[in-house]
Write a structure and sequence with these properties.
Number of helices: 3
Strand content: under 5%
Number of strands: 2
Length: 103
């Protein structure tokens, strides 16, 4: 955390330009107040909710849902064919072991 109301040089690995750090220091000091921080958090949640309700966001969500469904179906059919191959290999291995034990 930054000390004395100064913004750090990096936040979450992203370098903050010096100009922005200097101009953002009063805002950072203001955000140290819990009431102000809560109000900003509520505002960000309201903005995110409004963005999530846009038609573009809904279309992107539906596309992601259908993509995930297709991927799940492809994975399921792939797992079925892998299981079939493993069962075939196990059967053939057992036949070979049984035949070599008789000989």
């Amino acid at each position: 955390m930054a000390k004395n109301g100064k913004l750090p040089k990096r936040i979450a690995g992203v370098k903050i330009p010096k100009k922005l750090r200097k101009s953002g220091a009063p805002l950072y000091a203001l955000l140290q107040n819990p009431l102000v921080a809560d109000l900003v958090a509520v505002g960000l949640i309201a903005a995110a909710d409004a963005l999530a309700k846009t038609q573009t966001a809904k279309a992107a969500g539906n596309a992601a849902k259908h993509g995930a469904k297709d991927a799940a179906e492809a994975t399921g059919s792939g797992a079925t064919s892998v299981a079939s191959i493993l069962a075939l290999v196990a059967r053939e291995g057992a036949k070979y072991i049984k035949a070599s034990a008789k000989a």
